[in-house]
Amino acid sequence: MSKRLSGSHREQGIEDMAESLNLAKSSINLYFSRVNPEFDLIFIHQSEDEINSERNKQLHDIELSYLLNLMSAIEAKFKIDYAIRCEQKKKDELSRIFGEKYKNNGLKVKFDEDILKSWRSFVSDTSIVNELFTIVKYRNWLAHGKFWLLKTNVERFDFDYVYSIADYIQNHWPLMD
Question: Is residue 5's pLDDT more than 80?
Fold first, then answer.
């Protein structure tokens, strides 16, 4: 059982992900526009509707990819916070709860069941924590190929929505860095 975090220090910042996604979307839009010098060769046998449909599919797929990265970055932020609180033996109430989990499990804790459930008691707006539980379910559904029926409105989970939650947490919650 690992008792110390061997951090890579290669965590992705959410701002960097948003910038990268915007660049990727711009690239896709440029590829599917008449400004692309190869447009007529690439899309010679396709109608405008087919081209727009394919562009929209590509934009959707790239957003899902970045969304998975964003959701992973959120989890990493919380797991790093957990490790720092435990390894530095912080004395606040949340850190003490984490310390008990750490004694039994070290760093092998579950994000939703161990970390988020503990956070729920220490934030004034539990709706954010509840939304994180749903986001974790959505992330797992995406990461495992969408093969089961997810009992939530998946359409609301776009990059901008999850980014706004990540940004709020980053700026308003006492996560350790």
Answer: no
With a CB cutoff of 8 Å and minimum separation 6, the contacts of 141 are 148, 150, 154
Whole-number pLDDT of residue 70? 95
Whole-model pTM: value is 0.85
Distance CA 61, CA 57 (A): 6
Nearest one of 29, 61, 60 to 39, comparing CA atoms: 29
Q: Residue 177's pLDDT band (boundaries 50, 70, 90)?
A: low
With contact defined as beta carbons under 8 Å apart, do 116 and 129 qualify? yes
Question: Please, which residues have CB within 8 angstroms of residue 77's CB and are 6 or more apart in sequence?
Answer: 11, 169, 170, 175
Q: Where are the domains of the chain?
A: 14-172
Round to whole Å and give the CA distance between 141 and 171.
28
Residues 6+ apart with CB under 8 A from 142: 64, 67, 68
